[in-house]
Amino acid sequence: MYKIREAQESDYKVINQLTSSQRNMHLNEKDSIIEQDLYNESLLKVDTRWFVVEKSGEVLALIFFTIDVESRGIDVKKFTIDSEYRKKGLNEHLYKKMEQVANRKSMTFMQVDISQEQREVIDFFEQKGWKTENNYYVKYIK
């Protein structure tokens, strides 16, 4: 059974392992390695969220996004799934959690920068109603 939860400081090492593997990356991420101090600081900020999916205590996937209260938007920065666990619905768990936060915070849009090589990821977001706008995939929330 999969469990989704907010990331913790103790997840730092496994998150870096997941995001440093090119096979697991889904987005146009500028920095695959996150410095531990920046990671720990981001866990404390009210405008950032890290969620992980785990099974039997092992972190298998993550999403990291920022919340801009002024523009009322969410910007997905990292969306990573262990390549061994693709096509098992982990993307749905992460996506639903992000949508819940967006609705709770009364956001009006969400955006993500997806690597064009990741056709499977593009298809996933397009099936959710996301459209291309200014080199990003965007979904407006009613």
The portion of residues assigned to helices is 25-40%
Distance between the termini: 32 Å
Largest sheet: 7 strands, mixed
Element string (H = helix, E = strand): EHHEEEHEHEE
Radius of gyration: 14 Å
CATH architecture: 3-Layer(aba) Sandwich
Q: What is the overall silhouette?
A: globular
Question: What is the count of β-strands?
Answer: 7
Assembly state of the chains shown: single chain
Q: What is the element layout, followed by pairings?
A:
Layout: E1 3-6, H1 12-20, H2 36-44, E2 48-55, E3 58-68, E4 73-81, H3 90-104, E5 109-112, H4 119-127, E6 131-133, E7 136-140
Parallel strand pairs: 4-5
Antiparallel strand pairs: 1-2, 2-3, 3-4, 5-7, 6-7
Structure description:
This protein has one domain: Aminopeptidase. Helix content is 30%, strand content 31%. The protein contains 4 helices and 7 strands. It is globular. The model has no long low-confidence stretch (mean pLDDT 89).
